[in-house]
Amino acid sequence: MRKNPIFATIDYNSHGVQHGYLRLPYSRNDSAWGAIHIPITQVKNGIGACALLTGANHGDEYEGPLALVELAATLKPEDVSGTVIIIPFMNHPAFLAGTRVSPIDDLNMNRAFPGQPDGSPTQKIADYFQRTLLPMADVVLDFHSGGKTLDFLPFAASHALDDPEQQARCRAARDAFNAPFSIEMREIDALGMYDDAVESQGKTFVTTELGGGGTATPDTAEIARKGVRNLLIHAGILAGELTIAPSRLLSQEDDDCFHVTNHSGLVDFAVALGQSVTKGDLIARIWDTQHTGILPRSVFALMDGIVTARHHPGLVQPGDCLAVLATEATP
Ligand code: ZN
Fold first, then answer.
1. Which of 6, 181, 196, 254 could serve as 128's disulfide partner, Cβ 3.0–4.6 Å?
2. 197 C-alpha vs ligand 1 centroid, how far in Å?
3. Can you tell me the distance from the alpha carbon of 316 to that of 37, in angstroms, rounded to the nearest whole number?
4. Is 91 exposed, middle or buried (0-12, 13-18, 19+ CB in 10 A)?
5. What whole-number distance in Å separates Cα of residue 286 and Cα of residue 300?
6. Does the reported pTM lie above 0.85?
7. For position 114, what pLDDT does the model report?
8. How far is the CA of 207 from the centre of ligand 1 (A)?
9. CA quadruple 76, 78, 81, 82: dihedral sign
10. 102 CA distance to ligand 1 centroid (A)?
11. Ligand 1 centroid, distance to 208 Cα (angstroms)
12. Which has the closest alpha carbon to 203: 238, 143, 163, 234?
């Protein structure tokens, strides 16, 4: 396969702290010999596991970038046994634009894996993770939140995996992250996801959804900061004690958890994040935006559960995911 065109300005084999860039050549109208510069920090010291930490896989999600810029600015080699690779803005063009997908190629990083070394910028970044960064890592954390169009209960997630040993490792890492909620997550559309690329290489993987609406709050940013420290302690890379608070365990076992609207309009939620609902309960009413005097369409719960995600903007279109339910599980 072709060599990936990305050049790292840091040396992955060197010990100590290095701040640099993943330099992706990108020739364009305003810079003929220009490049996309994705900031990267590596902190390496002694023998130990390698953690790969990413934020802004989607450009409008902020808890991961907040936790990771702080970690990159403060982590010292003497604190570390092993290697920490920190990339706060994985899809840097999308992050700078404040958009979910890249404004350059309109591609969603989390649907672009395994990527292409001769593809568009997002595909090239994905290929660099797939073939260069992931093989170096033992533990991988990829921060997500709801972005501008979804809002989530703050949770850390693992997935159901074919290998029970790997699944147990991922669950243990998720529980060490210790978000207020922990979940075995079901994906609405897993094809091309970074999650799948990481898990297929046998790595210990934790992902999150820590809020949303295109911003972060003091609480959700703190969940991210605490979670990444806990994960590094769990991996034996940082010394110290885990900071553990109660976490409610959730699971998503069938596709009825996804509640999709067939209509456009003004959404009138009857339930809030974290609320328990029973099958048949009203989730939301959708009001017509072109006419008055018309009664709304109703969307009802397809199962019993807790509202773990909801559509954030006030208007919806056919096919929008309005709400996602999960059931409380016993650890
Ligand atoms: Zn995301």
1. 6
2. 15
3. 36
4. buried
5. 11
6. yes
7. 98
8. 9
9. positive
10. 13
11. 9
12. 163
Show the domains of the chain with their CATH numbers: 7-251 (3.40.630.10), 256-325 (2.40.50.100)
Residue matched to tokens 């040993």: 165
111 Cα–ligand 1 center, Å: 11
Calculate how far, in angstroms, residue 190's C-alpha sits from the geometric centre of ligand 1.
13
Q: Residues 6 or more apart from 292 whose CB is under 8 A from it?
A: none
Q: What is the mean pLDDT of each run of 10 residues along the chain (331 residues)?
A: 96 98 97 97 97 98 98 98 98 98 98 98 98 98 98 96 96 98 86 96 98 97 98 98 97 91 97 98 98 98 97 98 94 74
Distance 224 CA to ligand 1 centre (A): 14
- Distance of CA 142 to CAs 23, 41, 55, 89, 292, Å? 21, 15, 6, 11, 45
Cα of 164 vs centre of ligand 1, distance in Å, is: 26
